[in-house]
Amino acid sequence: MQELDYVEGDATDPVGDGPRIIAHVCNDIGAWGRGIVEVISRRWPEPEREFRRWHGEPTFRLGAVQLVPVAPELWVANMVGQHGIATRRGLRTGSGYEAGAGPPVRYDAIRECLTSLVTHARTRHASVHMPRIGCGLAGGTWAGIEPLIRETLCAHDVPTVVYDLSA
After folding, report:
1. Which residues form the Macro domain (predicted)?
2. CATH architecture of the domain formed by 4-164
């Protein structure tokens, strides 16, 4: 079993050599523009463009992963792991607002995404790099997410690095 590595830095500037996948969590309503995606879009236009194109297709759903090449041996994994987005009015979903619906994070969908990511990483002999996915705008807890990473990526010997931004 591969250990989970933690480093201080920016997940969009992954450490190490060789093939690398930058993973992050997206919502299921096609919204893009806050959190790590702001940094991703400044560095590469392809992940946002492909996410917006993918939204509305039959393959776009909770638990799905879209791998977007951004450089030689570097991909961004758009992982649909949150239902809607949190707002002051409540949870905004594709059908409106749901007051008191709780955070948008969907742990089962993130588990499914990470399981798919194992195949993508192993096929490409790639390491996976991510911020603390699902814990920012999605409203999840690291205590809920970290075991999912260990049960999927780490259990299948995929080198995985979690990035914490410097203070």
Report:
1. 1-167
2. 3-Layer(aba) Sandwich (3.40)
Radius of gyration of the chain (CA): 15
Residue 45 contacts by C-beta under 8 Å, 6 or more apart in sequence?
Answer: none
Dihedral in degrees, nearest 10, Cα atoms 85, 89, 101, 146: 40
Residue 124 is encoded by which pair of tokens? 């490409």
- At 167, the pLDDT band (50, 70, 90 cuts) reads low
Residue whose structure tokens are 């702001």: 38
Tens digit of each residue's pLDDT (9 = 90 or more) over 109-123: 999 999 999 999 999
Task: Please name the helix (run of DSSP H) or strand (run of DSSP E) that holds residue 39, with its range, or none.
Answer: helix 36-43
pTM: 0.94
> Hey, where are the domains in the chain?
4-164
